[in-house]
Structure formats: structure tokens, C-alpha cells
């Protein structure tokens, strides 16, 4: 056991010796190390959870164990883990456990260490396992941080592009649009961007690994091929509505229940997420189709069949990710006559903002369709905060007596 912990210490030291892009939310996370709540970092595989944890703990003598190491998964007496940690690290009270969901009954072990006074940071790549066990065993004793692949702001930091007052210059705006094009093509996985790895190969391999390691193996999936087909279908049809019945028929599943379970597994493994249709009636909201999005644009390019580019749907997906990152849980809104607004942001009982995506406003017909829908939904929701995200058009206009803000996507992303 000591040799395993020593090998993990070498991995920790290598991570500590590397320069990283500073992630958003890091100052707050570092402050949390001053109290004894368990720090829980969740998010997709390879999104940078381990690095975020390392940055949180920098300057502290902390122990590190990575439970993606199969040698640790056969340990039955967890006191032997503590013994080896003491041998290698001495009397430290700080421990980082990576991919903790792989350890059987991890929540009981973590709870015991917390009671003993350890200051713990844990990471995980399965939202349901973590949230369920945290709610059951660690209620009120943990604080959670969610890590996504790089945001556009973090991507700019990785490219050493300064966000400053010179962004008012057209030349600089041209440069940032060029970088936004790159981000739209490659996505935000840190290794892809830092090491200049081919994004298609990297992300498609990651997609297969998550499917079979984190879902098929963990849940003993009988129809792995069907799960794979469903994942491809949902990601290919990102930014579109879906229902479980439609998915069952399109992919020839035997039951709606199986489709629902498989979709949940894909969501729990941070491959896709969905948003609900806005309604004041809970039953109507539950019965309505949902809209699906990928957790990273790079996944879309890596797995979908090659078709003509659809920038509108891609930037809608990008906006959905950013809203989730900002913890603004969005809905989509559809009127009875079929007019749709992409995102309705709800605060309390009221809609505080309506957000419409229109890649190109040069097409008058498209522009009128989008703002007509926005105006009608604004009437229905009594919302006066109306924004249209575009590729590179900025203006304030009045339509139907309402002020509409047109904002370039890059400006909104770096707010």
C-alpha cells in the first residue's frame, strides 16, 4: 500500500510543478480551505477537476490519492489507506481524493475522516452518485464546486489574450472573433487547448471511454450498443427538442423506461444535459418535450455525422453551457402558436431575462421571426430584459414598444 501512495505522491508533485491557466472561481475555492467543510468538485472527465483541486491546495502539505487506480479498488480495510498516508505524508490534515465515486462506500469513509478532523477535497465524474450520497450522508457538511471545460474567458487566458480597454478597437475585435471561431471549433477541454492535441481524436476517444467505463461498466448495461446510439443521437441533435417516446421510436428501443434511464446515465456522466419548457403549471412542464445540449462544443464536432455547419445551433449550445456555468438554470419558452425563445431565465416566480440566439441578423426575414417571438413572449411573461445574442452585431432597437439589446456573443461570454 505504501508503494501505491508513493506513486500517487509522485503524480501529485508533477502536477504541482506544472503551470496552469487559473480557473474561474478559484479565489473563492481557496478561501474555503480555511474551514472544515468537505470540498466537493464535480464535472466532466478531463475538464480540469484535479488541477482545480491542486490549485486550491497549493502551498499546503496535502495527501493525494487517485481512485482511477485499480490497485486501490481492491482495498477492503480503509484504515490501511490512512496508515499508508501517514507513512508517506506525516501528520497532514489535508487530503485530496480524486474520482472518489470509484471507491465502494466512499461516503462512509469520507464521513469518518471528516469527524476525525481531516480537511478533505474530493472530486467526482458522476453527478447522481455524488449528489445522492452527499445528500444522504454529508448534509450540511460540504460545499460544492462545479468545473466545466474551459469557458471562453478561460480559453482567452490560455491563449494569453488580454481582456482590457483595447477591445474597443476594431482590430482587437477581429482578433477575438478569430479566437471565438477557434473555440467554436475545438471546444474547451484543457488538454486539447494547452497541448494542441487533435480535438476530434481526443474527444471521440474520451466519449467512448466515458460511455463504457463510467456507464456500461458501472450500471451493468445490457444493451451497450443502444446506449452508444442514444448518445450519438442526442449529441448530433443538440439544441433540439426531444421526448422519450420519440427517442424510443427513432432508435427502436423496447421501452420508454429504458430510454429514460439511459438518458439519465448520459446526463449523470456529464455528456449531455437538458432544459425544460417554461410553464407555470408543473404538470404541463413535466409532460412537455425537453431540449438537449452537449457539455462541450468539442464533443459535438467529434461525434456527430459530418453535415453542413449550423452556427446558430452551435452558439445556442455554447450559450446553454455558459448559463449552466453561471448557475442560471434556463428554460426554453414556446407560445401556443409555436413561437419560441431559446432561453427564459427565472428568478423566484418571475422571468427576469429572455435570451434569443440569432447568429446572423443580416437576413431580415430571420431577424423579424426571432424578435417577433421575443416580443410576444415578453408580453406573456411581463419581462422587459430582452437580449438577442449575435455573432458580431451590437445595437439597441425598439420593436413593438419594447427595447431589444443586440449583443455579440463574445461580449456576453466574457462578462
Query: Which band does the percent of strand residues land in?
Result: 15-25%
What is the gyration radius calculated from CA atoms? 23 Å
**Unreliable spans:** none
As for the CATH topology of the domain at 2-146, it is Rossmann fold
The number of distinct β-strands equals: 14
Number of helices: 18
Please summarize the sheet with the most strands.
Answer: 6 strands, mixed
Order of strands side by side in the largest beta sheet? 9-10-11-12-14-13
Class from secondary-structure proportions: alpha/beta
Amount of helix: 40-55%
Q: CATH H level of the domain at 2-146: which superfamily?
A: P-loop containing nucleotide triphosphate hydrolases
Distance between the termini: 48 Å
Q: According to CATH, what is the class of the domain at 2-146? A: Alpha Beta
Mean pLDDT: 92
* Global shape: globular
CATH architecture of the domain at 2-146: 3-Layer(aba) Sandwich
Question: What can you see in these coordinates?
Answer:
By secondary structure, the protein is an alpha/beta fold. Among the domains are: 2-146, Rossmann fold; 152-186, no CATH class; 322-415. Helix content is 47%, strand content 18%. It is built from 18 helices and 14 strands. The protein has helices at residues 2-16, 26-31, 49-57, 79-89, 106-115, 127-137, 152-158, 170-186, 190-194, 199-219, 224-236, 244-251, 256-268, 282-287, 297-303, 311-325, 364-381, 409-413; strands at residues 38-42, 62-66, 94-98, 119-124, 142-146, 240-242, 272-275, 290-294, 330-334, 340-347, 350-357, 386-390, 395-399, 402-408. The strands form three sheets. It has a six-stranded mixed sheet. β2, α4 (79-89) and β3 (94-98) form a beta-alpha-beta unit. The N and C termini lie far apart (48 Å). The mean pLDDT is 92.
Amino acid at each position: 500500500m505504501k508503494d501505491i501512495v508513493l506513486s500517487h505522491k509522485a503524480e501529485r508533485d508533477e502536477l504541482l510543478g506544472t503551470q496552469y491557466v487559473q480557473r474561474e472561481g478559484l479565489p473563492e475555492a481557496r478561501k474555503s480551505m480555511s474551514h472544515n467543510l468537505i470540498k466537493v468538485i464535480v464535472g466532466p472527465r478531463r475538464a480540469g477537476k484535479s488541477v482545480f483541486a491542486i490549485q486550491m491546495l497549493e502551498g499546503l502539505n496535502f495527501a493525494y490519492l487517485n481512485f482511477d487506480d485499480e490497485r486501490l479498488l481492491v482495498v477492503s480495510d480503509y484504515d490501511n489507506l490512512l496508515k499508508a498516508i501517514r507513512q508517506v505524508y506525516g501528520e497532514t490534515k489535508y487530503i485530496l481524493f480524486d474520482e472518489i465515486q470509484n471507491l465502494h462506500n466512499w461516503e462512509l469513509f469520507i464521513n469518518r475522516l471528516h469527524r476525525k478532523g481531516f480537511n478533505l477535497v474530493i472530486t467526482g465524474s458522476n453527478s447522481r452518485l455524488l449528489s445522492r450520497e452527499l445528500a444522504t450522508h454529508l448534509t450540511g457538511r460540504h460545499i460544492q464546486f462545479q468545473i466545466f471545460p474551459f469557458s471562453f474567458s478561460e480559453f482567452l487566458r490560455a491563449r494569453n489574450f488580454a481582456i482590457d480597454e483595447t477591445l474597443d478597437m476594431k482590430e482587437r475585435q477581429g482578433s477575438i472573433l478569430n479566437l471565438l471561431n477557434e473555440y467554436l471549433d475545438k471546444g474547451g477541454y484543457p488538454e486539447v487547448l494547452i497541448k494542441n492535441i487533435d480535438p476530434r481524436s481526443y474527444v471521440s476517444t474520451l466519449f467512448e471511454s466515458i460511455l463504457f467505463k463510467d456507464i456500461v461498466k458501472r450500471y451493468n448495461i445490457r444493451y451497450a450498443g443502444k446506449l452508444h446510439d442514444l448518445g450519438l443521437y442526442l449529441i448530433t441533435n443538440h439544441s433540439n427538442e426531444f421526448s422519450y417516446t420519440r427517442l424510443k421510436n427513432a432508435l427502436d428501443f423496447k421501452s420508454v423506461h429504458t430510454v429514460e434511464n439511459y438518458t439519465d446515465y448520459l446526463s449523470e456522466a456529464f455528456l449531455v444535459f437538458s432544459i425544460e419548457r417554461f410553464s407555470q403549471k408543473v404538470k404541463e412542464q413535466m409532460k412537455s418535450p425537453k431540449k438537449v445540449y452537449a457539455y462541450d462544443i468539442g464533443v459535438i464536432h467529434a461525434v456527430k455525422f459530418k453535415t453542413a455547419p449550423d452556427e446558430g445551433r452551435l452558439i445556442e449550445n455554447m450559450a446553454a453551457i455558459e448559463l449552466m456555468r453561471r448557475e442560471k438554470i434556463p428554460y426554453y419558452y414556446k407560445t401556443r402558436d409555436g413561437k419560441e425563445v431559446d432561453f427564459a431565465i427565472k428568478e423566484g416566480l418571475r422571468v427576469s431575462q429572455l435570451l434569443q440566439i440569432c447568429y446572423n441578423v443580416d437576413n431580415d426575414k430571420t431577424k423579424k421571426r426571432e424578435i417577433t417571438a421575443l416580443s410576444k413572449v415578453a408580453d406573456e411573461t411581463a419581462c422587459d430584459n430582452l437580449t438577442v445574442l449575435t455573432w458580431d452585431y451590437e445595437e439597441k432597437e425598439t420593436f413593438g414598444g419594447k427595447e431589444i439589446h443586440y449583443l455579440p456573443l463574445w461580449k456576453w461570454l466574457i462578462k
